Amino acid sequence: MHGDHTQAVRPFLIGSTWTTGQGQPFESINPATGGRNGLIGAASKADVDFAVRTAKAAQARPEWRQMLPHQRAAILHRIADLIEVNAEELADRQMRENGKLRRECVTQAAGGAAAYRYFAAICETMPSEIAPSRGDHLSMVLYEPYGVVAAITPWNSPLTLESQKVAAALAAGNAVVLKPSEFTPTIALRIAELALEAGLPPGIFNVVTGLGAETGTALVAHPDVRLISFTGGTATGKAIAREAAGRMAAVALELGGKSPHIVFADADLDKALEGVLHGVFSSTGQSCIAGTRLFVERSVYEGFVQKLATATNALRVGPPDDAQSQIAPLSSFIHRDKVETMVDMAREDGATVLAGGSRPGDARLANGAYFLPTILGNVSNSARICQQEVFGPVLCVLPFDNEADLVAQANDTLFGLAAGVWTQDFPKAWRVARAIEAGTVWINTYKTLSVSVPFGGFKESGSGREKGFFGIRTYQEPKTVMVGL
Ligand code: NDP
Question: Which of 8, 216, 247, 335 could pair covalently with 212 via S-S, beta carbons 3.0-4.6 A apart?
Fold first, then answer.
């Protein structure tokens, strides 16, 4: 069964059973058109309990628990194969739900498959350790799965964000219960269906759709969930960490950002300009790593910002399935309204709109959740618009005079997710990269992502790391075994 389109309410997956659940079904809306994608089943507290118990039982069964690493890896490779075969359909599905440009969705489908392959390779090759002996014994370190992992994800990039969590958690031997965002509910359902087709034992990857307030909180509170891997807003992340602390459940949190993007006067300014545009406006700015605070050295500030405003005004705002479009709609109407309110707030605080600042006038786009790419000048780093995450196509521009002052301002934020530096003076780039408090720093590039390097945040941008060789350790607990000789 395709598990899709045949029923009025889209069911979710527990074990090998598709169920519409006991919660109140909710509507999925296409943000590019305002049209309905369909009704989605919502998991109640009882449904979540059933999903977690199903996952726990499946994880404990020898067929998964004792599956040899190369066999587990083979299943992950088959999931990757099926994602690749179905990449176009998955891309369309994500585009309909979050309005992202189709070409970005296609790239993300490939990224999802890559995550499964990467963690398949780690699963098959990852060694246990023998530690130096300090006596007449053998000291071993093994890495055990947690058991049931809850994965909770946002709407901006489910194809990649969900894959990197699930692939790593499965490679580590866990079972997963995933709650996707209410705005992007069906990508995970489709991938879980493909995982069953790939031979993953039923119950190892379950998906419960529903709202954060009901389905999400029930999942976080479930006593049998031993690790919560969350990507989303910082406020939600803190609430989850507090709940998890009550029973010492582990958390991995990928949260918000307000990343500084720095252009020194000696940079290749044309390349920097491209990097700044891509860094903030790709995905219509709905990216945790978006470079949203632009610091430009004062001697080149005026000219650079002028060119940037011209280039921003020239970006083509249009439907996500139009190959000419560069800026797609925001992911929902409610989110577009939030972005608009934050731009109004910045104006009230004295910001000058240097580009955009409103919904597009184009009548063709009137039914979608569009907002023009926006640049705000005359702001100080302490202004609300420079301190709060907008998660939309909004860039603040600020001049700086010297390196020390720049670093102080760049770090003057609650967040610490990413940063970018453009300069041809490598020692300077190195100094700044070392001084910035962020999980990722790009030098003469921006938003360059790879599954092979760890990703996560300093400060309130989160705790723990995903991806990279050690990304699998996020989903494992070390166990020491000592043998007396
Ligand atoms: P939210 O924090 O609102 O939601 C994220 C997920 O958590 C959704 O599935 C949501 O459900 C669910 N949720 C909401 N409240 C609760 C709760 N109390 N308990 C359990 N689950 C809950 O974030 P958004 O979806 O709005 O995503 C945008 C945010 O994500 C931005 O702040 C962004 O910075 C961050 N993000 C971080 C990334 C990173 O890697 N650091 C990557 C991408 C985004 P529902 O959809 O029903 O509300």
Answer: 216
